[in-house]
Give the backbone structure.
Amino acid sequence: MDLVDSRDRASRSERPPRIVNGARATRQQRMLASIDLKLLLSFEALLEHRNVTHAARHMSVSQPSMSRSLIRLRGIFNDDLLVRGSSSLVPTPQAERLAKLLPPVLNAVRTMIDRDCALGAWRSKATMAMPDHQALILLPPLLPILREHAPYLHIVTDSLLGGALSRLERGEIHLAVGQIDAAPLGYLRRTLYADRFSCLLRQNHPALAREWTIETFATLHHAALASDSKDGFGRVHDELVKLDLLDRDPVLVSNILTAATAVAASDLVLIVPRRVATRIAALLPLEIVDPPVELTPYEVALIWHERCHRDPEHRWLRHEITAAASQTELTQTAPVAAQ
């Protein structure tokens, strides 16, 4: 008999509860369907003011309308919630329990619909695809702004531009900095700045003592920044190939500072945007020289997907990146001319 009872109890314990949970879920669903946001706001006002007239004034509704809201609330929660006291309405124990639950619920809703970007409390990560030489230009003026206005925003830079468009669409990256003639459908583009190319050579480079001509330039061994991009981003030295000035393969380096350090210790020459050249020449013993031929200027752009276009935090970050780019204007100091 005991064995049968134990098996029967075990069988009953394994059965999923149906009637109680089903009825409870149905009741909760009906309650949720009967509550709207305005009703919860009315409950908040009633709990705060303990007076129907004052709560109605707070909500900019009539006193009868607020009374009807209280009646609805009493029906939904099957409780009086607020009853008459000697000088004001007095909450029932059920209302006191609900009063503890209501603020986080309403605050969460207010946060959901708040269109303003509370930057001081912005805890997020923004990944930007940009080549190292662009990070060298944009991050120094940008990071102090972020540290002051969005101290909890975590910035990650990705120097690989390959597949940038599809990664923007998937949300793997949030922004890309590079060169693209026109933004494809579904993408947006903002010009950050236009730049021209300059040559970086080590100080006392033999070429600086010679006449700076195309022939002299063509005999130099070049360093170049390698690019993995197939999306139209990151064209830094394409014009050199078109001019057919390189008589041998360049030394390809993926990192701008590594390339510049190699140039400072050798007879290599490196073609980079003027802003990049100015920044690097302040760090290393390098000379800036204009190319002996006119190279087509290039335009650096900020690219993003339309999925992020209206996001307030994303919009603020784009604005600050644009402002940081405006601080990188070329200096008026003339470049060193080769003799």
In short: The first helix runs from residue 2 to 14. The chain is about 45% helix and 20% strand.
